[in-house]
Design goal:
Blueprint lengths: L9 H6 L27 E2 L4 E4 L5 E4 L4 E5 L2 E5 L6 E7 L4 H12 L7 E7 L7 E7 L7 E10 L2 E10 H6 L1 H8 L22 H17 L4 E8 L2 E10 L7 E3 L4 E2 L3 H15 L9 H4 L8 H6 L17 H5 L6 H8 L16 H15 L5 H17 L8 H4 L8 E3 L5 E3 L18 E2 L1 H12 L13 H6 L5 E2 L4 E3 L4 E3 L6 E8 L2 E8 L4 E7 L5 H16 L5 H22 L6 H5 L4 E4 L3 E8 L2 E5 L4 E8 L5 E5 L8 E4 L7 E5 L4 E6 L3
Antiparallel strand pairs: 1-4, 2-3, 4-5, 5-6, 6-10, 7-8, 8-9, 9-10, 11-12, 11-23, 12-13, 14-17, 15-16, 18-19, 19-20, 20-21, 21-22, 22-23, 24-25, 24-31, 25-26, 26-27, 27-28, 28-29, 29-30, 30-31
Helix pairs in contact: 5-16, 6-11, 6-12, 10-11, 11-12, 16-17
């Protein structure tokens, strides 16, 4: 749920950054070869199509994109135009030389300044990987980067040159390109057909050592994990502390915010109502909730219950309204805001994540069960009666006051200099009016009860049937693709990267990052909960380490964590050099005291000593200033956990204003009376 700052070249950095498994197969040396499958003229693809680079390295080109060959480069252009991904095969003495040659082939006039170059672990048959992030200004609304991939004396350089709006909307198609970009003849490691080992003391020790080492490497105060195998809890405990500076330890009963893991539990509630005949997965939502309305009437008519948390309706991610207008917000106002949201892709065409739509899902189900209650109260009651109560999840709650008594974790973030410090809970309160999307507090032991039920296909531990199998499993079926190897269903992802299905979902709010996962073919499930923003970099490697231990996989997870930690430190340091904190006094003097946006409300600007603060009503943050390459000035929030919101000064003709953007939207704040 937490809005992470836009990071240049984030998609390719993640996809080629060492988080995926590699094969034990021997590497194959490549010589330059003709690319017989490359079009001589630009070709627009009618379907997802396997292709190769000029040297013959395979990838998948997305439906609707245009391909053309330009010397050693394969150029892929999305339907919107103005953005490109280039795959360039070159020789080079080292990665830097290869990237320089690739830019010369792709766009010799490109002048993006280099911000950061980082080495990543060798993966997927590539012998060396080095990523490059380039400086762009806020008004460019663009991310630019490159990755140099070496194999057999040759380099394949992937260049990512995409407008933010296109990159976000087509992120799953970008994954399609990169998640199978491997050297010719290389086969990725697969666990298909293997039997999972029993997690005995020795194997559990490998997992727990990994978690504790990762926690220390990333300076995360507290982590809790739980593992079930063959119907039994084999581990449920914690590492570190609930809050910095306090001695209380994390354990299996420590409450954390589990954020978007709430979505899967919300769709479980809907599945229970489907099983009870209250409605069907294909019932139009407008029949259940008359006030349900999107900005596009045609899309509104098409939305069935199964589409509410499918990320497939074409509505883009649009979180700013609930993040900045939380004070006084209600479930009813969240529903009303949906009517202002316009789709940016066709229904069912692309994966686009929508928290307000997920909120509507929970409110619709609650309203059907408790039509006389207010939407939020109805949802809370439905979740208690249909999910938390029957599954014995006694510590799970939407009540923040109750959650933050006794054994609970506090959030932590990074300050402007990259130090781990306690973070405010204010921004986490903004999700309460949209709580079906991510406001649950829970524990490892409680979430394991949910995971075990999923593994048992609807049975409770005593053998009682809790829910019919068919509506439960319907939630795992693909609604929209997440690339070649993963799909999104109803609040659940299914990842087959390693040859076996891993069902999971993650959760992100300020200072809380988590994941729950299960292997339905092997009767194993796991949960990881963390209480600091760098905890987001543990959960993917934790999943990988679990598979390594279960299947004797190639050991990669430890190196993945170390690489993520280095990259985090280096990227924070690079960004810190560009910031002035406290904010530049002259730039602050030019600000108005108050601003207002019709969509996002008010900003009050104040000074406390040398520090400048932006107060948004429900929460506030100190800001730093930055002089951009295009001559503009930005103010960026830097309070721990609330960092990364960038306000660009857009004064014109004597009128003072600020602009805030997400990938696909722009919000203007004009000077206002105090």
């Amino acid at each position: 749920m937490k809005r992470l700052p836009l990071v240049a070249f984030g998609a390719l950095a993640l996809l080629l950054g060492g988080c995926k498994p590699a094969s034990d197969s021997p590497a194959t040396t490549q010589a330059p070869a003709a690319n017989a499958s490359a079009p001589a003229e630009p070709e627009t693809l009618a379907t997802d199509t396997p292709r190769t680079t000029v040297d013959g390295n395979p990838f998948v080109a997305p439906e609707g994109w245009t391909l053309e060959t330009k010397g050693p480069a394969i150029l892929l252009t999305p339907p919107e135009g103005g953005s490109r991904i280039a795959l360039v095969d070159v020789a080079g003495e080292d990665a830097d030389a290869a990237v320089a040659a690739a830019w010369q082939a792709y766009d010799a006039d490109a002048k993006w300044p280099l911000k950061l170059a980082t080495d990543r672990p060798a993966r997927d048959g590539w012998e060396q990987i080095r990523n490059y992030d380039y400086e762009t200004s806020a008004n460019d609304r663009r991310s630019v980067g490159a990755a140099a991939l070496k194999h057999g004396g040759r380099w394949t350089v992937a260049i990512y040159d995409m407008a933010h709006a296109v990159g976000e909307k087509r992120g799953a198609q970008v994954s399609l390109i990169f998640d199978r970009l491997m050297p010719k003849g290389y086969n990725r490691e697969s666990f298909a057909g293997k039997t999972a080992h029993k997690l005995d003391d020795a194997r559990l020790a490998q997992l727990t050592k990994f978690v504790e080492d990762a926690r220390q490497t990333l300076d995360v105060p507290g982590v809790a994990i739980g593992i079930v195998q063959d119907g039994k809890v084999v581990f449920a405990d914690g590492f570190g502390v609930r809050a910095l500076g306090k001695p209380e330890k994390v354990d299996g009963d420590t409450r954390f915010m589990i954020a978007s893991n709430t979505k899967a539990m919300t769709t479980l509630m809907l599945a229970k109502l489907v099983a009870d005949g209250k409605f069907g997965w294909k019932t139009p939502v407008t029949q259940l909730l008359s006030e349900f309305k999107l900005g596009d009437a045609d899309t509104t008519r098409q939305v069935l219950v199964e589409h509410l948390i499918c990320a497939c309706t074409g509505l883009p991610r649009q979180d700013m309204e609930w993040l900045f207008e939380s004070e006084g917000a209600t479930p009813e106002s969240v529903m009303a805001t949906l009517a202002t949201m316009q789709p940016t892709s066709k229904f069912g065409e692309l994966f686009q994540y929508s928290n307000p739509m997920a909120a509507a899902a929970g409110f619709a189900g609650g309203h059907v069960l408790y039509p006389d209650k207010e939407l939020g109260a109805a949802y809370d009651a439905a979740m208690q009666s249909q999910v938390f109560g029957p599954l014995g999840m006694k510590s799970t709650t939407f009540d923040y006051d109750a959650a933050m008594r006794g054994n609970y974790a506090m959030p932590h973030g990074l300050d402007v200099d990259g130090n781990t410090v306690p973070a405010s809970m204010d921004l986490n309160h903004t999700i309460i009016p949209a709580r079906p999307a991510g406001a649950v507090w829970s524990t490892v032991n409680d979430v394991l009860r949910y995971v075990q039920m999923e593994l048992d296909k609807g049975l409770l531990p005593d053998g009682t049937r809790y829910i019919d199998e068919a509506p439960l499993l319907e939630r795992r079926k693909q609604q929209v693709a997440l690339g070649n190897d993963a799909s999104y269903g109803m609040g659940l992802m299914v990842d087959r990267t390693w040859g076996i299905p891993v069902v999971h979902h993650g959760g992100d709010m300020l200072g809380f990052h988590s994941d729950m996962m299960w292997l339905p073919e092997h009767n194993v499930g796991a949960v990881i909960l963390t209480n600091s923003d760098p905890g987001v970099f543990i959960r993917g490697p934790f999943q990988r380490r679990l598979l390594e231990v279960l299947f004797d996989g190639k050991p990669e997870a430890v190196e993945n964590v170390a690489s993520q930690a280095r990259r985090l430190e280096e990227s924070r340091a690079a960004e810190r050099k560009r910031l002035t904190a406290p904010a530049d006094a002259a730039a602050v003097d030019a600000l108005a005291a108050h601003y207002r946006s019709d969509e996002l409300g008010d900003i009050a600007v104040s000074r406390k000593g040398d520090a400048t603060w932006f107060d948004f009503g429900g929460w506030k943050s100190e800001v730093a200033s930055r002089r951009n390459d295009d001559g503009t000035t930005s103010f960026i929030t830097i309070s721990p956990g609330e960092d990364g919101f960038e306000f660009v000064v857009a004064d014109k003709d004597g009128a003072r204003s600020l602009v805030l953007r997400d990938a696909q939207h722009e919000y203007a704040f004009a000077e206002a009376e105090g």
